Amino acid sequence: MFELKPAPGLAGQFEVLKHRIMASLNGLGGQPIVLAVTSCEAGEGKTTVASNFAASLAEDRAGRVLLIDADVRTKSLHTVFGQERAPGLTDVVVSLDARWPVFRAGENLDVLFTGTEISEPGRIFLTDKFRNLINGVKRKYSFTVIDCPPLIGKDGLVTAPAKADAVILVVQAERVRREIIQRAVAHLESAGARILGVVLNKRRHRIPRFIYKMI
After folding, report:
1. By C-alpha distance, which of 65, 21, 74 is closest to 46?
2. Pairing state of beta strands 109-112 and 103-106?
3. Contact call for residues 36 and 193 (beta carbons, < 8 A)
4. Three-state secondary-structure class, residue 151
5. Pairing of strands 143-147, 166-172
6. Could you give the angle at which helices 46-59 and 11-24 cross, rounded to 10 degrees?
7. Is 39 helix (H, G, I), strand (E, B) or coil?
8. Cis amide prior to 161 (ω within 30 degrees)
9. CA 4, CA 2: separation in Å to the nearest integer?
10. Which class for 209: exposed (0-12), middle (13-18), buried (19 or more C-beta within 10 A)?
């Protein structure tokens, strides 16, 4: 069994991130949580944040954790595990099959890859089936982390962030202009998403690389 663990050099920083996120979610009263992780643009490190955060949660052994690769155009998470991407998310949403083809990535961690390639993949996030999937994960998992498409793109605004309980925005320092970040935040707010905070990635200063800020 392939077991996903937080990257050794980042484990401490993800512990800090995890505790701050969980403290911010206390208002949900310990119920199952769906957290979306997204970014303004591609390549800012959201998949690294989502996968390491999910692995850190799973190590707590406080319940089962599901990591979903919902970035259906980039579809990169399966390469981390050396697995095929299908069957996966698109197959669950498009078909009526109630079985979830999850990959066991640890004792308490499952992963749902993107699935079979389909035309207009962004449209699956508008369906009742996707909404039902989000509701379904709460019956099976204590915590679900969704790696979402970038917000400034074809699928960002209509995808999982608006359907999750909370959203983390990953921003790569010294790369994305302030105007783009403001536009991404406006997209989330207009969709009714609860923005929990921002993870500032790859900052070149003598402070932790990943910084969680309440906004």
Report:
1. 74
2. antiparallel
3. yes
4. coil
5. unpaired
6. 80
7. strand
8. no
9. 7
10. middle
Read off the pTM. 0.86
pLDDT per residue over 9-60, tens digit each?
Answer: 566 777 888 888 888 887 666 789 999 999 998 889 999 899 989 988 998 8
CB atoms within 10 A of CB 139: 7
Sorted by sequence, the CB contacts under 8 Å of residue 204 that are 6+ apart come out as 173, 174
Distance CA 59, CA 65 (A): 10
Tokens of 137: 């994960």
Q: Which two tokens stand for residue 49?
A: 């944040």
Residue labelled with tokens 């997209």: 187
Residues in the chain: 215
**Could you tell me which residues are beta bridge partners of residue 211?**
200
What domains appear along the chain, each with residue ranges and CATH number?
Answer: 14-22+31-204 (3.40.50.300)
Residue 152 carries which side chain, given as an amino acid letter? I
